[in-house]
Amino acid sequence: MGRIALPGNPPIPVELRRSARARRMSLRLSGVDGQVTLTLPRRVPEAEGLAFLREKEDWLRGHLEARAPDLEVGIGATIPIEGIPHEIVPGQGRGVRLGEGVLEVPGDPARAGVRAQAWLKARARDRLAGASDTYARALGRPYARLTLRDTRSRWGSCSSAGALMYSWRLVLAPAEVLDYVAAHEVAHLRHMDHSRAFWDTVTELYGDWRAPRTWLRREGGGLHRYRF
Which three-class secondary structure state does DSSP give residue 182? Predict the structure, then answer.
């Protein structure tokens, strides 16, 4: 893996990846952080890759400019909670409280983002544990443990030992998306692959999973723009 830059104003940093399996050049723009990755077959010169980048420059710059800017979460900011917009407002008492269209955060306003994040993580754990428990019972296969992380490369995983991992940011997505991811990972307790049998199991547990999977692919990257 190397790094080059597409000249311009501003220059665009590009991760350069060589692949023995690649048959042609390909360009990927991450919806999570805007990272540009150029994959080249082993024998293609770097200069040819740069020429390919220049051909795609207008497309690249257009998509980079269209990305929503990151949002610093604090008093007055609006964030989605299970897909529903909520404004963060000052609260009373000691605990964070979910209201109608608002998340009430008491205490020092400068720490509102940190407190909101802690509340969201706790809610994510409750929701994901509840969904995982429900699907695991339906499947007849218990999982070993459940952990939350702030992952960028995947929304969840299931190890061969039955350990489930989820991104806590799933609590920002619509409820049906969180439930789909839980069903997806629990289904791996039966099938550690993405075979037809695996997808049949996801359907058995969740129902029609196509809409939430499409939502994640199109909109999931935006869940990482919220900075706490």
Answer: helix
Q: Which domains does the chain have, with CATH numbers?
A: 2-66 (no CATH), 120-227 (3.30.2010.10)
Tell me which DSSP letter residue 189 carries: T
Global pTM value: 0.78
Contact (CB, 8 A) for 43 and 65: no
Distance CA 190, CA 54 (A): 47
Strands, E, within the chain: which ranges?
2-6, 12-19, 26-29, 36-41, 71-72, 78-81, 84-90, 97-98, 102-105, 145-149, 156-158, 163-167, 226-227
**Per-residue pLDDT tens digits for 169-228:** 999 999 999 999 999 999 999 999 999 999 999 999 999 999 999 999 888 988 999 999
Q: Looking at residue 152, what is its pLDDT? A: 82
Phi, psi of 140 (to 5 degrees): 80, 25
**Cα 218 from chain centroid (whole Å):** 10
User: pLDDT below 70 — which residues of the chain?
Assistant: 1, 31-32
Whole-angstrom Cα Rg for the chain: 21
Q: How far apart are CA 174 and CA 223, in angstroms?
A: 11
